[in-house]
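Dear Dr. H.,

I hope your travels went smoothly. While you were away I took the liberty of generating a structure for the chain from your last submission, since the lab meeting agenda had it listed for discussion. I wanted you to have the full record in hand beforehand rather than looking at slides cold. The sequence, exactly as received, is reproduced here:
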Amino acid sequence: MLKRAYQNFDLLITRTATGYNARVIESPAGEANVDFVLPFTQAELGNFFWLANHALRQLRPATTSETLPLDPKSFGTRLYEAVFADGVGKVFVRSLDAARRSDTGLRLRLRLSDTPELADLPWEYLYATDLVRHPALSDQTPLVRYLELPLAEPTLTAGLPLHVLGVVAAPSDLPPLNNDQEWTRLQTALADLQTRNLITLERLERATTAALQRRLRQGDVHILHFIGHGLFDLEQDTGGLFFETATGQSHLLSAERLGTLLHDHSALRLVFLNACEGARGGTHNVFRGVAQTLVQQGLPAVLAMQFPVSDQAAIALSHEFYKALADGYGVDAAVTEARKALYAAGDEREWGTPVLFSRSSDNQLLAGATIANSSPAVDTPGTSQIQSAGGTVIQGNVTAGGDFVGRDHVTLQIDGSVLSNSPITIHGSPAKNSASDSFITTTGFVSSEQFGLQLTKSEGIIRRLYRGLLALEDQQLFSDNKTEKATLQTQIEQQVQQLQTLLPPYVTQANQLIWQIPADIQAAIDRSLIK
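The corresponding predicted structure, in token form, is as follows:
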């Protein structure tokens, strides 16, 4: 688990009469500034393959006729050498040294609110020639877009458990996305956090604005995860997301209207927009984009995409981001881990697609101490723990206090990977006037046979098969070798066949015992692996 503290390197960029000025306004090594001009021509930016479909916006380019092809590294090198020249570069290097000596990281916070034409550039590709790496690909130097507002810096850390609400929009009149696979990966990524009662995950019943508003009224949501289509309307100079109508057609919700919908939900800490162009800002006002508008409306942090993103990259980014959060990483470091996963797998450009907008001082969503203290209460050889809302159940002769509430006794969460053949004893007072607890009242004891030990053993096998399937799919996704892809496809089909054999009897038994199916097992079921 990462327990890295960070110091900030705040870089403010403003316009000048001849170009721009980059000023270090906070760092461990003092302040500095440098004037610069954008080191690209209009033609170069027009040929820049990931900017080819973007309107070029008053970029004040250098006046030269030279046109060279740009790749992420060459683009990032030239941008870094222009902006981090002279004193700014020296202070950056000294700040890195100071951070190392104090055993902290150095968070690079870009302040581009006054230069919306520059905010549309992919700063995430900055390549530090003196470090010989992209800062955004190292958790020692995560890169964050900081939006200046006349508001105090908000608190990102939330109480546990964190409630994650997934909005999966698939309008029938828009091109289909691989939403179901992404949702499955999200469930898998959060399974461990759910088991440890750190996170709850739910999917909005319908991806309509009315359903979202209704859900927000019903209880706290800490993370809103949107999966679907987004765009930036050049004519209207505003961004938006495509929700669904009551009949399943597309409904474009503007950034302003979405901000209004979410503004009053004070519990909301992070919005993850897995949709195209959610990070693009306005031509003359950076706060015309979806992510920027949400931050302006008080959201502590928004993770969004600045370019069209492929299904494969969107799924991989989401999966790795939440896995890093589960390991205790801050939001900015978790984004970095997601970038690295894509880059290490051979991706050349989509690792720079996600943009983190944050006004948090530490970007810590799950406090490290809280995570450490949320491990199982009993860690004794030969015992296994079952959690319930009203009390704790321990296998064997170890018990914990607390009364059961409602249907807790039939919603036991048992991990088949640790359960042995010992009987399970339930200790707790039944709820009054509760028919569901009459079973406990009558027996006072529930044996392992009665509570379906066979189910937990099946879960262990299913869990291993499903995790193996996901690993094979990830390997196939990033493989460029046709022979290897074919071999992996055969192995994938074999795994699926085994799961299709195991899942139907498991589900039948679980339904008979009113058994709560663990999140990762449910993910396999949701993928329609049952024939």
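Two observations you may find useful: Residues 52-60, 375-451 have pLDDT under 50 and may be disordered. The first helix runs from residue 42 to 47.

With kind regards,
E. W.
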